[in-house]
Amino acid sequence: MARTDHQTMRRVLRREIAGTVGLLTDEHDFRAMRRYRSFTFDDHTTYLRQMEAVLKTRAAQGSHTALALFDPEEYAEFCTATGIDPEAPASRGRFTAELAALGPTIPYEGEPLTALLPALVGEAVRQATWEYATTLLTRLGPCATCGEDIGRAAFVRASALLARVLETAPPGAQHLVCSVAGPPETLVAVLHADADAHGTAEPDQAEALEFTSVLALGLATRSPGGLVIRVSAPDRPDRVHGWRLRAGHLQPLTASEVFDAYCTDIDTGDLIAPESGVDYRAAPDLADDDQEGRGHHH
Description:
Layout (H helix, E strand, L loop, with lengths): L1 H14 L3 E5 L3 H7 L10 H17 L4 E5 L2 H11 L6 H14 L2 E4 L4 H27 L10 H19 L3 E9 L6 E9 L9 H17 L3 E9 L2 E11 L2 E4 L2 H8 L15 E3 L18
Parallel strand pairs: 1-2, 7-9
Antiparallel strand pairs: 2-3, 4-5, 4-6, 6-7, 7-8
Helix pairs in contact: 6-7, 6-8, 7-8
């Protein structure tokens, strides 16, 4: 009887222990891990199938599992920095624990891995974009003339501009994209929000932080780019409008400019047939507080 009670208590405790699984999401990373003898899988498809079976078993037992992106290059650097053996399975477990604490994760709730992998990669890209934009904003330092922190001021201004974009949009599901060009590559941030009948939108806070950081970088560095919002609501056409990011300002696009942007192939310049059920509108003026063009470029 005592043994049965102990087994029952242990099963209950196992259900209360959360775990994190580091996933090799693509063939390239999978091949990189095969250089370790202790990594016994030789086929990525089989690896994912077996991993999914383990995750389903844990879910059936009531255990919570988070998924993290396992990067072989970061793993090798981690092992070198900590002086642990990369061949040891325990080392992979220790690295995965670090991912759980510092890296992006998504919960596993029984979905097929094929559906979760793009979401996991997207989370990793989002965090990397935010960290990169934040690093560049920090490096801008203080204004040589007035002493104000350029990156912080740009972030405050970008926050206000984003709030105005959301406030001026009609009710519905809002999908925003901000792109900022510049070396070494273009940064792109995406934000989703649902506005109620009163126009109140509640965006995801992590997405909003990344979006604001990318927009702030474009404002502070005067890099070219743009911001587009698309609003979907039942029984009416999708509405699209946008702004051009130029010389540290968001300039509203006319309806024809928005139409041209959506109906032109960005790579070839060829015309694309317009979507049916889409209303291209002129963007409102956001009444930027920095209308004088100061922007710390005195």
